[in-house]
Amino acid sequence: MEIIEKENYILYDIKIEENDLNTPINLTGQTFLTKFNGSLFKHINQNNSKIYINDKEQETFSAWNKFDQVGEFQIKIVLSEILSDLTFIFYRCGKITKLDLSHFIMDNALTLEGAFEECENLEEINMENCNTEKVENLMGTFSACLSLKEIKGIEHLNFKNVKSMECAFLNCSSLEKLNLSQLNVEKVENMLSLFKGCTNLTELNLDGWNAVSAVDMGCMFQDCTNLKILHLNNFKTENIQNMTEMFRNCQNLTKIDLSSCKTNLLLGMANMFNGCKNLSEVDLSSFDTSLVVNMDSLFRGCENLENLNLENFSTENVIKMQSMFNGCKKLEKLNLNNFETENVTNMHFMFNDCENLSEINIDNFNTTKCTNLHFLFAGCKNLKNLNLSSFNTENATYLCNMFQNCESLKELDLSNFRTEKCINMANMFENCINLEKLDISHFKDNSVIFMDSMFTNLPKLKEIKVPLAIVEMAEFFECPIICKNVISEDKEHCKKFRKINIDKDTNKCQYIEIDAITREEKILYEADEIGEIIKIVNNK
Description:
Elements (H helix, E strand, L loop, with lengths): L7 E9 L32 E5 L2 E2 L13 E9 L16 E5 L23 E3 L23 E3 L24 E3 L23 E3 L4 E2 L17 E3 L4 E2 L17 E3 L23 E3 L49 E3 L23 E3 L49 E2 L24 E3 L23 E5 H7 L16 H4 L2 E7 L4 E7 L20 E3 L3
Parallel strand pairs: 5-6, 6-7, 8-9, 9-11, 10-12, 13-14, 15-16, 17-18, 18-19, 19-22
Antiparallel strand pairs: 1-4, 1-5, 2-3, 2-4, 20-21
């Protein structure tokens, strides 16, 4: 036993309620967990400690195995040795409301892993004078301290040997402000979910953090939904590999400055800013993304982002780009001319609901490996021109809803599209209300199963070229705009459809020509008002 000269004690308050009466409390510490005292008492016994309750020394621990009265009690534990293993020392101490460690000697402590985890009623911790110089592990230290509002002295703690801060403040949902700018985090490798779920945190100061050893920052600020001010001046990274979901659902952040970050080893940044709906400015000018594999939903839901400069982005190794800009409602221009997409397999929803996007440069997009292109431009209501000349869709299986609600498009050149492997084309051009011409005469139906509502609501369509095979598959004449109710009573003839003739004076269909048993035979049907010319091309 190590005898120490100055008094070494822990002081804490617990609150006993009616339903806690006569509940056994193991003060001898023979069990790992107890209802009130966590695992602290696994370290102590009558030979190395004294226990005081409301300043009254307890002669035997067993006398206090149960509380027989309601109220608030102050417990003081005087230790005659220095504890080295503080793992889960107060884990699940659900009744502690205040904890004073200002006289607790932890000079030899190597770990504070889970030390206060799930102390759900703990409101205040005093760590003034605590010596954490030897501590290497802070994993989950304050995790799920749902009522914690203040950690006195945390700004003066010595973290110079700490390697892991994973989940250290996870779900500390009552913390409002933290200034950790003075902490030394040079050796910290793991910052995964460090502040995740701090839903009431409004201001966080990490200025000057020299996180040069950090490899993982995934989910670091995720679900900090009320965070408005995040100080990241001179926030340095050199070995970072994971930033996945780093700022996800930081709904009230308006600016993020990562200009001092070095990211040449970065592999993952999926969902990094997903749900940052008030973000208007983000500086990624220093980012090197040459090794990044996943950019899934990178800026998804950034509803107020007006400008985005990604000219420094390198994407040659990226495989996933789905929903990358999904819901960026205020973006007006996007230059992605530098994007290399030859390895991308998923682009679905990439620009979905970018409703103010009027100019986009994707002239160099290579989509040869893409299998999913559904909802790619859906909801791009202001997009007037779209150059898809570099697109190769030979491996695409999903093209459904690809241009749905592109209300400003007048023409689409899809001459290079190949559809041999496509399964689903449903709603592909639905609600392109200004589309005037469309040529998909080269489309194949080899694998197509779904084509419903493919041409729904195209009121200005003047010319369309469609292969007969697709007409047969789609039951073309059930489309309410292109031809209202035509041949609804005779679908067998519909399958042999050849062409529609329009009376130019009345703009009404004169007749519908259908293949019959003999070449001379023609079956004529009247039709409702439709576009000026509809051409069906039989490419069988």
